[in-house]
Fold this sequence. Notes:
The complex is a heterodimer. Chain A is an alpha/beta fold.
Amino acid sequence: MKNTYKDHYRRGDLIMWVDLSTYCNAGCPQCHRTKLIGHTTEDWLPLVQWSLQTFVEAFPINTLHHYARWEFCGTWGDPLMNKDLFGIVQYIIDNSTARIQINTNGSIRDANWWWDFGVMGGNRLQVWFDIDGTTQDMHSLYRQKTNLDKIKENVEAYCATNAEACAMTIVFKHNQDYLWDIHDMIRGLGVKGKLIFAESNRFYHQDYHDSWNIAGELVRLEQATLNGDHPLLNDEVPIRDHKWRKKFVADGNKTNDYW
Amino acid sequence: MAKKIRCRWEQDKRLLVNPDGQAFPCCYLSNNYYQSTVYEERGTYDELPDGHKANIEHPVMAAYFECQDEYNVFKTDVNDILTSQWFTETLPNSWDSDETVHFQCKRMCEIDE
């Protein structure tokens, strides 16, 4: 029999994905919040963020047992840009047994903050860092406005705690020949969790994507030519990828969970 | 082989809440909705791409929009949202027919039975 949302809620195994912020420090050209010219925020997008108070009002303590996991990924912004994120995660940690998963570019806040965050979250906290290269140029051709050295410092500090670190690499033509180097660098930072390498699926009409940075310089991203033919692309299919339907049919009723 | 809709996010036990507190079963429905409501509030709805308009004007989403406060976590208890007519009847019943299914559900969550 099919399980519905209310069944999941009553059983306490609902996963809540909450978009806590529309702010972002980066300017990834294929992100739908990014303008192609200047890599700034799309004009229509309001800049908003939840406070700890609004979070508690929406999800009072006496309801937290309905949720098995919280996901702060950010469709319209990076959750680390939320000024109350630490408090929101602490509220969940202190008042429930739920786990928390966060996706971020990692180029926000400093190593001390990340250490404290990992210590507070412990083994119920899982952070996915977006790392697309071994050099600043390789990494930030897509992850515009982020700083790889800062990300590495933050990842290392976080990985020294009991919290879990994972990483996601979007594969383009410019980094497809360096996937093992990226893999080794990420592992060297202390990331022990899953690593996902996924070719960008946001080339809709042609095999390149043009945008222009704030200085007016052309940023051309080219589609990877691996077509899945790489050991690092084989076994981890992102559950939010459009390939899900194929995966779902192949695996019957099984879902492909991160955790 | 017969086709049917199996909601991926519901099977994954995952519910999405937009920055404005609106609860949705997935980002495929929520993203266009969020952008469309911002345009609507600013009086620039006509400037939306046709695809966005078709998304939000589909009867399934029109029914959501009509009672949107009932699906907002800032205004309604999550239990009430999940037991609401839209989540328990309007959306799942729409999957029974090609005439009623939202094209995003068909595009993203149609599987061979």
